Every structure is written in structure tokens, then in C-alpha cells.
Amino acid sequence: MIEGILIGLQTALSLKNILMVVMGCFFGTIIGMLPGLGPMTAIALMIPITYGFEPATGLILMAGVYYGAVFGGSTSSILINAPGVPGTVATAFDGYPMAQQGKAGKALAIAAYSSFAGGTISAIFLLFAAPSLSKVSLAFRSPDYFALMVLGLTAVSAFSSKGQFLKAMMMVILGLMLATVGQDSLSDITRFTFNNMNLTDGISFVLVVMATFAMSEALTIILKGKDPSRATEKISLSQLGSIKLDKDERNKMLKSIPRSSVLGFLIGVLPGAGATIASFLAYGMERNYVNEDEKKKFGKGSVHGLAAPETANNAACSGSFVPLLTLGIPGSGTTAVMLGALLGFGIQPGPRLYMTNPEIFWSVIMSMYIGMVILLILNLPLIPYIARVLATPKNFLIPLILFFSVTGIYLMSFNNFDIFLMIGIAIVATFLRLYNFPMAPLILAFVLGGLIEENLRRSLLISDGSFSFLWDRPLTAVIFGGTILLVSWQIYKSIKR
Amino acid sequence: MFKKLVKLVLASLLFFSVSTTTFAMDKLHFLIGGGAGGGWDGTARGTGEALTKAGMLGSASFENMSGGGGGKALAYLINTKPENTILVQSTPLVLRSITRHKGYVTGDDVLSYKDVTPIAGVIGDYGAIAVAKDSPFQNFADVVAAYKKDPKSVKMAGGSVRGSMDHLIGALAFQEAGANPNDVIYVPYDAGGKALAGLLSGETQILSTGLGEVMGARDQVRIIGITAPERVSDAPEVPTLKEQGFDVQFVNWRGFFGPPGMDKGMKKQIAKMLGDIQKTPEWEAVRKRNAWVNIYNPDKKFVKFLKTQTKEMTALMKKLGVI
After folding, report:
1. Which domain holds residue B63?
2. pTM over the 0.90 mark
3. Which residues, including other chains, have CB under 8 Å from residue A475's CB and lie 6 or more apart?
């Protein structure tokens, strides 16, 4: 293995490959910042460029784009509440409130440090445990995924504080309802499409996020423009704040990072989950973990609430290379595109990859360390300049947000209908916002709803209609047991109070 | 229309007279019914790349138009009849034609291959039945034996919904083995990769999908049969179902279609170009990179093939109760 690492290091440190890492990280960051354009599109468009390259070089470039995009996506989440990539939706929950409190610089710095730590720590896991971890990725069956997604749904409690319980629950239901639109995932029956073929593929996650976050946020600001209570906020917004973290913030961040990187990495290893699920789960778990005082800060600019999802999404990114490289299983659209490219290079992924092509296997992992350092260098000194976006007067910033929302969604599907659908959802969401309905539970339910349904129905199909799958296997039972304990403990605590 | 055509011919004559290299065609616009990175996208861009590099085509342009599982692009081609434009499509077009025309799905997307002009099928992917490496099943006969003993002991995974291509590949094989394809438990996943993970986790016993989907995981799975007439060069160790005594042949073709009422000369010209390109090294480079199988199938032959496939699939889908 040492030999392999050395070969990898040698390959990764060649001038050409370092150049590729820098290029990949740079393009990835920019693409990640633009709402709508995700790493999958970027990598797909990059494939023709990589054809003349050696396989290792090509894969290093694509990996750089991938984690660069997840790194960069947090910037637009924090600054304009418009997540650049799906994996950074949870970043907006606490990052955006923080920026609104005049701490944009700090928020960006926390995101950058957490992403760096998450990416680096999980690359270490990848280095030492990739072959044995492939077993973990195969241990999960449909019932386990079902249990895991239900566990994820408990994170809703994070958004239902101070008498908002009913409203949060209503938004969960709305999110679950939106998730049912489109072709049923098990049969080809279409649901709630009203014979409109633009709806047969369902409503895209990015579209819902852009409509409920970026666009409705912009519309709310316009509608509340004359609100005198907002005047103070306007002033504070133009101050970027320092990027230096004080001792308390650093300590909080350092506490969140280890647990979130382990969680994120493990979720990333699973073929049925990914960076998005990992960040939501980390957010929910983190809230369950911290003390009562911290809990109240969640959703209002908590350091824990920002560091956890940012660490987890980058960790999941590295984790998703485990099934890709050791089993040839793509867990997400992005890794599926990469697998196609690998096969195009004539590379056969599998447990023997690090024996047959050590230079590829190890150099990609090695390049991840280099990439993380480059991303940190790229992002940290630039933060004051990036954060200045917020200092842009509102009458320029709002049209810009609206512009990026519309172009972003169009670039994703090249379908005009999506623009109208987004505007429609944004208008409804704006009214809901004005009546203080939280948007995060809707997003969480939307992303988990489809997965819960699909895995539940598949479990039932496999177990021949019997619900015994809930306790048949220890793994499922443990996850469900954990969920029940977690919920009952929370209920007990709230009754006692 | 005629005037426009004359102008086009004159213009191209003028173009050819001044340019030093002569292209078989000046320009061609590829319409893609899915997003970047998908199978249709790769086929269109790969073909366009080979054609321009080989000097047969002056310039190729591409347009992704996703929506309705390709239905949106299909509707656009039929309604606007754009010039110099071809649409990339594959087997799902046939399946769609069957379900939509039987009144199974109503609405404004009742469209089939008969509404467009088939030009040529160019590449294909065979169906494959795979099991995990440590599975007791060594060949398809083992699977059939286990199934006949207890139909519930064999669960078949696939990367798409019931009634999709993945489902039909496995169902065809079981039907040929004398089983009722409707009794085979089919477990759908929402992507090939996830179906593969399901197979390897042990929750299903066999996987029915395209050969291309399992090529990446040959270290983990044993492919026990493919629906090709003979073994393929990219995976020579993999047996066909036919040589095991189950005469199942199925190819997921990918090909090109023109707008309805496309000029016959133009259709022939494009069809010829798509055939000629397959003999060039430029095409071979693209083909190898994507592990495609050449199945050039032009014009009338293509239409005939589509008719046969429609007939076979209709019968099977009726048996499966999906239409």
C-alpha cells in the first residue's frame, strides 16, 4: 500500500496533474456558485476535453470539478440564499441568517474551513479504508434506506421551534405532496401531471429550492421594502464583518467537524444517498447533539448549523468515490457520468483497481488533498471580495438574484415551462413566507419524500407485502430503534419542561 | 417549400464550388430529448464529432430539450418540422408508441415513431442478465430451474420502472424458457447503478439490464447471458442466451429520425452518411470510447425492424399486463 501511495503521490504531483487540480477546482467553484448549474452538467460537458488525456489526469480534473462545485456552492447559499448545488441547500439554513446579521465574512470562512476539513478527513478515510468500506456500501438494502430516510425526516424538528410546530408540519405535507408529482418510480403511471408532459419527469429539486429560497426571498424583500423594521437590517447588511473567527466560534466549529465528517463520509459511501442527504442528516443530527441553548440558535445563524452540513457534503463527495472506484457502482448522477468516462478510458473499476491501475486509484485520492488545499487558498483570501456582493445595493442585488434564478433553471433543463413553474411556486412560497411558514421543512420533505416512498414500496415488493422487513434484519431494526428513541426522548423532554 | 429547397441546393452548390473540401453535408442540427451526459446526448454528440472530424459534415450543432422522457423534443420535431434537423431516439420510442397509441395514456403527447421519419439505427446495446459473483447461479438454466421450483425465490432487479426495457429484457428470457413472465417478481430501481447495488446487497437474485450498465462492474457480477445473436468482442467471455438454448434476441437500438414529411433525397443522404461514417477511424475512436456496438440499419430496413419490434413488444407487454 505504501508503494501505491508513493506512486499515486508521484502521479498527482506531476506538473500537469497539479495544473488539472487547479483548473478543476477553479471551474468547479465558479460553476458551483452559479445557481442551477451543478457538477453533473459541468463534468458531462468536460468529458470531450479529457479524451486526449491519460485516465488519471482526466479523472483528477473531473474530481476537482466535483468537489470544487460543492465547495463553491455554499457561497451563493450564504450570500443570496440561492444554493448553487443541491448539496449546499442545508448550508443556507444557518449561513444566510448569519450573513444577514452582518457576519457574511465569518459565515463564508466557517463554510470554507468546514468544507476543507470535511474533504480532507474523508480523503484520509478513503485512503485507508476504501477497499473494506465497499462492503459497507453493499450492506444497505431497501428497508435500511427507508429507515435512514425516516430518520432524516426527524430533522424537521429543527425547524419547528417556538410555536411553529403546526406550520412546519403543514410544510412537510406540502413537500411530500410536491414529491409525488410525475412518473411513479416503480410503475410508469404518471401522477398529478394533468396530462402535461413537462410534469412527467416530476418537479426538479433544484427548481423547488430556487423557487422557495432565492426567488421568494427576493420577492419578500421587495414586498417588505417599506417595512420600517427592516431599515436597521439594511444598514447591517452593508457591513461584511471580519472573516476572523473568535475563540467561541472556532471551538463550536471544531466540535461539529469530526462527527459530521464521519457521518457525511458514511452516507456518501451508500449508493442510494449522496451529498444532499448527507448535509440534511448532518444538520438534523447536529441539532440533536448540541445543548438546549445552542438548539434555539438553529435556523438563526448557528455556527454548528452551518459547519455540520458544510463538512458533511464535502465528506460525502469523497465518500461517493468508494462505490465508484471499488465496485463500479455510481451512487449519483455525477459519479455515473464519471464512470462512463472511466470506461471510455478503458479502465475497469473494481476491488482490483488499486492493483491493476495503482496510479489512477491512489493519484485521485492524493489529488484530493492537493485540491482541498487549493480550494482553501482560492476561497479564503477571496472571501472579503466575494462577500462584497452583499454590499451591493438592494435594487441591484434583487434583479441579479432573479436573473440568476431564471437563467440557472433554464440552463439546467432548456425548458421554458420550468421557468413558469418556478415563478408560480415562488409566488405561492412568497405568500407563505409573509405568513411566517418555514420553507426548510418543505425542502426536506420534498427531497426525502420520493426516496421514502420508493424504498418502502420496494421493500414491500421484496418481502411479498409483509411489514416484517422492519425488524427482520438487525441493521434496519437498529436504525428504526434509534429513530424511535430519538423522537421519544425529545417528546419526554418537551413534556418535562 | 420547393423554392426553399431550390435555394438551398443552389446555395450549397455555390458553397461547394468555392470550398476546397467537399462535405457530404453542409450542416446538421442534432436534437436531443434529454440532458447533458445521458445516453442520447452521448450518441448525438459522438456521431456529430465523428462526422465533422472525418470531414463528412461541415458543422454539427446540438440542442438539449428535455421533458416528458423525450416527449417534448419529439413533439417539437413533429409540430415545427425544423430544417436540417435530426432527433436521436432509442427503443423507448417504440415502447412509448405502444402505450400511447392504445389509449393507455391520453393527452397531447400521444406520439409514436410513425409520426416522424425514421432515418437509420446506428448503434445498439444488448440486454444482459447478471448475478452476483458469489451467486449459485452459473447460467440461465440454473435461474429457470430455481424459478420453477419456487417462483418467489428469484427476484429480478432492473434500473427502471415496470414495463420498461430492463423489465422486458428479463421477461423475454423467462418467456422463452417457458415461464409466465408475469409471475416473475420484478423489482424496479430508479437507476442502473442502484439496481446493481441492490443485486450485490443480496436483496435481489438476478439483474436484468443493458450490457453497457454492467460492463463497469464485471469484477462484482457474473453476466450469465446476453440477448445478442453471437458473443460480443468487448466482452468475449460472456455467453449469449441463444447458445444456452434460449433464443432471445433483443437490441436496444439508438438511431436518428427526421421531421415528418422529410425530403426523401435528404433522408437517403443522411442515412448513407451515417453508414459511411462507421467505416472510418474517427468513428471507431468514438465507438471504442463508449463501448458501442455498431448496428447500422438504414431507411426501409429500419422501418421494418421498428414494426417487428413493436409487434413483439406489444405482445409481451400485454402478457405482463402493463398495457
Report:
1. 18-123+253-320
2. no
3. A139, A140, A141, A144
